[in-house]
Design brief:
Number of helices: 16
Number of strands: 22
Strand order of the largest sheet: 2-1-11-10-7-8
Helix content: 25-40%
Distance between the termini: 40 Å
Structural class: alpha+beta
């Protein structure tokens, strides 16, 4: 078996000196470094964030990404957001210094599969996930599925259900953002007739509907704290009580949770209960954005086109045009693009010119990228402000060698507010 490029990351100094992890090309997801209990390299450094940075092997280099940490990440003394290392570098975070070593090791081949159930993808970023998906499908444990909007989290959840021990039971989806806040509890747990205005009949909630099967709670990061406590009880005791009801109802449900939010950051900021987080995150899997799935745009375009046009092949010029576009809306945007082309033919090209920024030339322009998502004005404005906050914070930190205290002083704002701006910008930009 041929040797592949791998990296060993060792703690050279700090409270955890001597600890190390090995990063390989076949890892299903980036390794996490920080104080959090789910980190692959867990640090006792009180100046490190819960999820401080991630490590993964990309094209023979070690990619290091700061995950919106409080005190920043430095490579050989230079503050960075993302860096590609060759080996020999020193990574500083908090009071910890990591050393990076490049090695050659024989490892298992990345699977050649081009999909997992209804989840389609032949890129290396996707193929690395499939062995983990297979194991999780049969494990019958809670799983947190993370990823940007439109990456296919619901499709993966359904694939896990269909290949798992509960495949004969129902697959139920509950979107926390699609129900008015005052009706969330009733939607989750059900309600009795007359329990509130408009409750003209008794109804079961999604937990009862999913009994014997799988319940996907989508966008769980948007669930209010009060309901998080009630959800935790339902998970721990396997029973629910309808709004206005007096008896507890036993339910047997496998819960999958999906989110576009950074739940570690939400826990750190007190917006998400840590006990619920630990109960849900028995396993975690992160779907990569389409821009990091090299070669999958054409594969998915063919897949969607054939499905929508009774087996017809998409024009090559269409595939060439799609390859040059960043797809900020990920797989969902690509699917809608193909649906529009199948429905309108060449007319879709004229529409696309009016609706879409020029490919590649504007891919790095944050305003063009956000406008391409076609969000309502308040959401688009929020994302643009978050982009400005993030760029400003990164720049002022770089000028002051990653010192948050000096950066806050130079910004003319209090240290605590500076940290809040930094954390909020990371969250809202996602």
């Amino acid at each position: 078996m041929a040797a592949t490029t791998c990296f060993v990351v060792r703690v050279a100094s700090g409270a955890d000196a001597g600890k190390s992890v090995e990063a390989t090309p076949a890892m299903p997801s980036p390794m996490l470094v920080g104080q959090g209990p789910f980190c692959d390299l867990r640090l006792q450094d009180r100046h490190a964030s819960r999820r401080h940075l991630s490590l993964d092997v990309v094209d023979g280099t070690l990619r290091v990404r700061d995950l919106g940490s409080t005190n920043g990440t430095r490579i050989n003394g230079l503050s960075v957001a993302t860096a590609f290392l060759q080996g020999g570098e020193r990574v500083m975070l908090g009071e910890t210094t990591l050393e990076v070593f490049r090695i050659g090791r024989s490892h298992s081949q990345i699977p050649r599969a081009t999909g997992f159930g209804k989840l389609v993808g032949a890129s290396e970023a996707m193929r690395k996930l499939y062995p983990l998906c297979e194991r999780l499908a049969g494990a019958d444990v809670p799983v947190v599925i993370e990823g940007e909007t439109g990456t296919g989290k619901e499709v993966l959840a359904e694939a896990l259900h269909e290949r798992g021990p509960r495949r004969e039971g129902p697959f139920t989806v509950f979107d926390c953002t699609a129900v008015p806040p005052n009706l969330l509890e009733a939607a989750l747990f059900g309600h009795e007739r007359g329990s509130f205005t408009g409750a003209t009949e008794t109804r079961a909630g999604v937990f009862e509907e999913a009994h014997g099967g799988t319940l996907l709670i989508d966008e769980i990061g948007d669930l209010e704290l009060e309901l998080q406590a009630k959800l935790l009880r339902a998970l721990e005791r396997g029973e629910v009580r309808r709004v206005g009801g007096k008896k507890w109802i036993k339910v047997s449900v496998r819960v999958l949770a999906a989110t576009r939010r950074d739940l570690d950051l939400a826990v750190e900021e007190g917006r998400f209960r840590d006990d619920l987080f630990y109960r849900l995150a028995v396993a975690r899997i992160e779907l990569p954005p389409l821009r990091e799935r090299h070669g999958d745009v054409a594969l998915l375009a063919r897949h969607f086109f054939r499905a929508m046009s009774r087996g017809a092949e998409p024009p090559e010029e269409l595939l060439a045009a799609l390859e040059g576009y960043p797809f900020p809306g990920n797989v969902r945007e690509l699917h809608n693009t193909i649906a529009r082309r199948v429905a309108l033919g060449d007319l879709a090209d004229a529409q696309a010119q009016r609706r879409r920024p020029a490919p590649r030339a504007e891919a790095s322009d944050p305003i063009a990228r956000i406008l391409a998502e076609e969000l309502p004005f308040p959401q688009a404005r929020q994302k643009m402000l978050a982009e400005f906050d993030q760029r400003y914070v990164e720049q002022v930190l770089a000028r002051h060698d990653g010192s948050v205290t000096k950066a806050a002083a130079a910004s003319g704002i209090a240290l605590r507010y500076f940290q809040m701006v930094r954390a909020r910008s990371k969250r809202d930009a996602g």
